[in-house]
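Sample pair:
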Amino acid sequence: MRTAHRTCPLCDAVCGLRLTLDDSGHVTSVKGDPDDPFSKGFICPKGASLGHLDEDPDRLRVPMMRGEDDEWHEVTWEEAFGAVDRGLKRVIDTHGRDAVALYLGNPTFHTMGGILYRGALGQALGTRNIYSASTIDQMPKHVACGYLFGDPLAISVPDIDRTDYLLVLGANPVESNGSLCTAPDFPGRLKALRRRGGKLVVVDPRRTRTAAVADEHLFVRPGTDAFLLFGIVHTLLAEDLATIDLEVAGLEELRRLAEDFTPEIVSPVCGVPAERIVRLARELAAAPTAAVYSRIGACTVEFGTATQWLVDVINILTGNFDRPGGVMFTRTATMDLGRTGEPYTTGRWHSRVRGMPESLGELPVATLADEIETPGHGQVKALIAVAGNPVLSAPGGPRLDRALRDLDFMVCVDPYLNETTRHANVILPPPRILQMPHYDFLLLSVTVRNYTRFSPAILPLEPGQLSEGEIMARLTLIASGQGAGADPGALDEMMLEQILGGATQAPGSPFEGQDVAELRASLQGNSGPELLLDVFLRLGSHGLSLAALLESPHGIDLGPLEPRLPELLCTVSGRVELAPPPLAEEAARLRERLATPAPEMLLIGRRQLRSNNSWLHNVPTLAGGSNQCTLQVHPDDVTRLGLGEQAVVRSANGELVVPVEPTETIMPGVVSLPHGWGHAGSSQRIAAEQPGVNANVLTDESVVDVPSGNAVFNGVPVTLAPYEPVESAGARSLPLASAPA
């Protein structure tokens, strides 16, 4: 037996784990690491199941190719990359580089190879058709921050350990473990907030587990958070409660915009009583410190960008922005990756079919099917998908499922044969989790306390097995025209030379004026990703290196968050823009929506503690229990509509048959269906036993948050009806939890 330590890669909480392995490399136990200064031994069911996920027998271990007989065959890496080279070259030579699309899934943010090579791969492809999970998740937050601060990556987090008052909208961190807010043991931190006399208020259409531990829970009609927040802004300004301590622009314009959103006007729309909206504003203004935190439930709505804008506007108006106990910015151990120092711009190009604007170098995934299906110059003919399952995760999933069948070529980097990768010509599987080094570049940029931790690989690669970095590097070299046999190490050296060369020329850099060759020789690491990490750590403001992290296997506490907005702010005016024109346009759209009657029934998603999108449903220890695909419906609606054990849910886009779960934890007029299910016929055996249904049969890819192009998954109008099976030869025409043909 031996003990190894690792950061859990399965959600945003970056919990430290202590694993016990036998001589064969089999994981016999997974526990929280009590010596981790950030997570302090906390572990959730997902982390405890890491060994089962790592050893999943359904996981692909060698490259797979789909033959002309449509059957899958194991092949060598050389054969696989040769096929990729020929397939991509054929499409590019015939149709041009924009005929190749790149899709980057959520797990690319959780692996070193995924995040370090995604930019290089996109650049090598030279295509404008780049898509990612960002536009089915958090793009509204990026766009709002871009307009407010000039930097779309300037995402603040609630200083939860020091705040006196926390208002949470559209987030369920007790089950999600936090999102764009890295805080191990979020439940414990919320309880500590209340123990020290603070107050927790949750606004959500469901009485979630987070709402259950709050001082107060307010039901809100799905998709109307922006109206509620505007009511708070109106009150803060009308009652002269604002205490702004930053250099801001647009205050008078904001005041003008807020005039039409009095609590009395927005209350009938959002469902929160006007007097409670006023009291929220007064409580936020009066609290010694306060923070407003909002996440995916209020991002994936029609007014997602407006909601995220108003969240930070309230934090600013109450004097709680970039302030201890309010919302603050993490100072990462590495240099700030992705930041340009240039004011944010969007729409540098637009999608071919629907004219949707680019943001952060990518187009909305809601238009990917359009680009595949619509003939003409630039039509997508090939797709590279890395660690994503958009057939289940993207809006209008069934349409995308059909569109993928018509591609000329498709290659996936993925450990599973799933609902998306089954359409590929080639699947390139990365190593097992424990065979890969781990560093959370993204998640460590939104921690509620400055912290860092590196996890070296626990198990070695098998003979002939490629690392994830090597797979991504070889794909990048193929995309750049260097062929299937190019040395992946050459790409690593090119990237290192560019970074080191730039750093030696940058005034104030730790490497300024030094020799590039000497710097390169001083780097440590067993792979390209580790060498890159060493560079980024040395260029960071904490003076660390890879060697320092290896000497601290439990992680390093880098201290509490400190104010740092001035060094991040890069608007043209040099001030925080409270009412930039694109967001003022959203206020006009909100004003128009005030007079629109609300649909009778609205659909929302829901977080599940034992699940994560579509990729943890094949783990036996996480299956069952609360991890089920049911439609939560208020008992009054069950009675009113005469629903039985199953119901037919219909939207403008499709319909599903789903098991009904009556519960008073959801507000009347709202139903909830979890995201990421729909595994009927899957080769993943555990997932196929409890397949659930794909909620994106019901979502509409033509409806998006306008400024960001983000998909709309919450507040989808639906109708419900009893399911009445047609008996045929003693059998039902539709099985449990299935989609009608």
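The first helix runs from residue 45 to 48.
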